Amino acid sequence: MNKVMSNKAVIALYVLPALVLVMAVIYGPMLITGYYGLMEWNGIGEMTFIGLENYKVLIQDAKFWESAWHSFLLAIFSTISLAGYLIVSLILAGKIKGSNILRKIYLIPMLLSSVAIAQLWVKIYDPNNGVLNSLLSSFGMENPPVWLADTDLVLYAIFVAILWQYAGFYIIIYYAALKGIPEELIEAARIDGANPVQIAYKIKVPLISGVIKVTIVLAIVGSLKYFDLIYVMTGGGPNGASEVIASYMYKKAFDTFDFGYGSAIAFFLLIITLIVTWITRKLTASEDEVQY
Amino acid sequence: MAQIQNEGQNEKTMLTRIGMILLYICLIVVALFQLYPLIWLAMFSLKTNTEVFGLSPFALPQDPQWVNYLNVWENGNINVYFFNSVWITVTSVVLTLLLASFVTFAITRMNWKLNKLTLGLFMVGLMVPIHSALIPLFAFFLELNIVNHPLSLILAYTAFNLPLTIMILLGFYYTLPKEIEEAAVVDGCSVHRIFFQITLPMTTPVMATTAIINMIYNWNEFVFVNTFISSDKWKTLTVGIQNFIGQYSTDWGAIGATLMISIIPVLIAFLVLSDRIVEGIAAGSVKG
């Protein structure tokens, strides 16, 4: 057994192709991003070393901080909306007929491309022929908002599309976790006279706190690197009102060919993601994990 | 006495019933919110522009314009994008599953010291945002001369899907009994035969799950195509429909038809394999 299964040549043959690929495509570029951030480079010509210049500019770049603020707002909204998903999952995981079908209907938007979702919602928000403003007009609203063209509303309008996209994803996760709670625990509480709301709040939610923590990290980190939907829906506009970190970085690099500065933003995004992941895990870590 | 008790119970069942109805209404409202935009999309994909601009957006198509689909398929280059999406998605998925199975087999079945460290190396990849690798990756692919070539997409998709795929496979490999493989070793089987003829066939259920999750990811991917591919010949559907819509931004029927063409394959996969998809999403996320 040991001899055949310890063959170093075979191990190398099985592991190295994947490892080399991941190193070359993910980790290598990830580290080089930080190095490129020290350069001035238009993507084609010579690179010039300029030290921390890009990072100094970054700290004073008001447009960058505005987009960072939008990313932060999305992270907050996404985290708050988790409570709504949790409530829906709690209802769904009760003795509800058709919960299987409902759960799958909720999931459908999650399977579609962000491009398709963005284009669909552009049409939904269309000021003249969109379904939303037609609905508002039929309720007697005189001048319904122009949504994606309104600097005050655009971020919220985008967030509704994000909500639509991800609801099913989180509901699936919570549902699976809730179904994993042993039935005896719930039964015992019921015999002790606890009502369904008490059971949900005092027993079910604490029991799946581990999963809830994971979803908080997912929601925050996912929001920080959010890109596709916003880039397609508004391109960060109008006037930067929906710009986020990733879309700002992409524009700097691939639209204005400032690859050095783009790399500095990308490296900043990486560091922020790692720090936020670490902090969220620390903050949400309880003294002792719930066991059953 | 008995009657009072009975009335109390009736009142209680009434309350429970009203409560249940309210809960159902709540669930159905969410379901409508999730479903209606897609129904609306399907409807305007079958309308003429006169209907879109002249009539209520809630109206059904008067005379379904299937010709919208035919037009964009043939004249909008959508057929080219569609087939690119198909073969690039499938190639990447096969490559990802094969490489990930090799790695998972080596980590869980073979004896070597650095296996835990290697696993950790793959798992860190789950946290890396695509954007923080994008610029150097672009420069690297320029160097290799594969920018504007489908190989750039296949390499990027395979690499970025490996960590999650290995993670899902790993959970399954740990639950598989090792006795069959041990017996095969005693019988003098080579490692390759054990892997290809014993282990790989046993993991078909989990491979189906990871394959469908990978397929959906690759089919929907946007950033890499938008960055690496510039010629229409190699674009996939996501970027293809984005360009198409940019050119025909007022032709609602055509836009609806292209969007429908891009999502119909995913919807069909979902109808057939929804349990696998749900399982894959639950397995892939909870471990974080």
Automatic annotation (TrEMBL), chain A:
> Is Cell membrane found in the keyword set?
yes
User: Record's GO cellular component, any one?
Assistant: plasma membrane
* Chain ranges passing through the membrane: 12-38, 72-93, 105-122, 153-177, 207-227, 259-279
Q: Which InterPro entries match?
A: ABC_transporter_permease (IPR051393), MetI-like (IPR000515), MetI-like_sf (IPR035906)
Which domain of life, per UniProt? Answer: Bacteria
Where is this protein primarily located?
membrane
Q: Where in the cell is it found?
A: Cell membrane
Which BP terms in the Gene Ontology apply to this protein?
transmembrane transport
Q: Which Gene3D superfamilies match?
A: MetI-like
The UniProt keyword set, sorted, is:
Cell membrane, Membrane, Transmembrane, Transmembrane helix, Transport
Tell me the Pfam families matching this sequence. Answer: BPD_transp_1
Q: How does it sit in the membrane?
A: Multi-pass membrane protein
Give residue ranges for domain ABC transmembrane type-1: 68-280
Which PROSITE patterns does the protein's record reference?
ABC_TM1
Which family does the entry's similarity section mention?
Belongs to the binding-protein-dependent transport system permease family.
Q: Which PANTHER family match?
A: ABC TRANSPORTER PERMEASE PROTEIN (PTHR30193), INNER MEMBRANE ABC TRANSPORTER PERMEASE PROTEIN YCJO (PTHR30193:SF37)
| UniProt name for this protein | Carbohydrate ABC transporter membrane protein 1, CUT1 family
UniProtKB/TrEMBL annotation, chain B:
Q: Where is the signal peptide?
A: none
Q: How is this protein annotated for GO cellular component?
A: plasma membrane
Is Membrane there in the keyword field?
yes
Key words of the record: Cell membrane, Membrane, Transmembrane, Transmembrane helix, Transport
Give the UniProt subcellular location, in the record's own words: Cell membrane
Its GO biological process annotations read: transmembrane transport
Pfam families membership: BPD_transp_1
Q: Which PROSITE patterns does the record cross-reference, listed alphabetically?
A: ABC_TM1 (PS50928)
Using the record's annotation, list all stretches that form the ABC transmembrane type-1 domain.
Answer: 82-273
Enumerate the SUPFAM superfamilies for this protein.
MetI-like (SSF161098)
Membrane-crossing segments per the record: 21-43, 86-107, 119-142, 154-174, 194-217, 252-273
- Domain of life, per the record? Bacteria
Family matches, as InterPro entries: MetI-like, MetI-like_sf
Q: How does it sit in the membrane?
A: Multi-pass membrane protein
Name the protein family.
Belongs to the binding-protein-dependent transport system permease family.
Q: What is this protein called?
A: Carbohydrate ABC transporter membrane protein 2, CUT1 family
